[in-house]
């Protein structure tokens, strides 16, 4: 997908959110289910960033490529994290060492996603971004 505008960025983020929890949306969170908790955070982050990016684009237009990068990285990290979550929950033969490695990767990605989500929110909350 070639991204030329903040509107394209919004489409990308909303698509990632949709692909994590399609059709019926997020299921109710169960406190004991870390994978659902992570997926819920990813969907909320991508959906919020996507909707707000669309609002930003309506006011500011396409935006610069540098403005798009953190949004696109958030979408990429969310998609990768969802893939790894599928890998740890959908194994036919559990290899505990591999599952442990994947969870280590997932936790690193979720830290990055939280940082990106905070950065995107800060960008969108700047007075210049809202004007």
Mean pLDDT: 86
Regions with pLDDT < 50 over 5+ consecutive residues? none
Beginning-to-end CA distance, first to last residue: 29 Å
What percentage of amino acids are in beta strands? under 5%
Radius of gyration: 16 Å
Number of strands: 0
Shape: elongated
Q: Structural class, judged by helices and strands?
A: mainly alpha
DSSP summary: helix tally: 5
Order of helices and strands: HHHHH
Q: What can you see in these coordinates?
A:
With 131 residues, the protein is mainly alpha-helical. 77% of the residues lie in helices and 0% in strands. Helix 1 packs parallel to helix 3 and helix 2 packs antiparallel against helix 3 (65-89). The protein is elongated, with a radius of gyration of 16 Å.
Could you provide a short overview of the structure?
By secondary structure, the chain is an all-alpha fold.
